Write the structure tokens for this entry.
Amino acid sequence: MTTKKTIKIEGMHCGSCAQIIEEELSDKVKSVIVSVMDKKATIDFDENKISLNQIKETIGKLGYKAN
């Protein structure tokens, strides 16, 4: 079963920031779309494979703050 969540991300400044996050999560989730303008990410993922907290931790390790 997949879950779709939208989370806020602080610290992004440009398209490269969004691309870094998308590339880091791409092999861990079903889909991820990051918007620099909206300062958010919409993520479709399988909770049996990765939790929302793990996704936020991954984003945090890249230097951004995910809420």
In short: Strands lie at 2-10, 31-35, 40-46, 65-66.
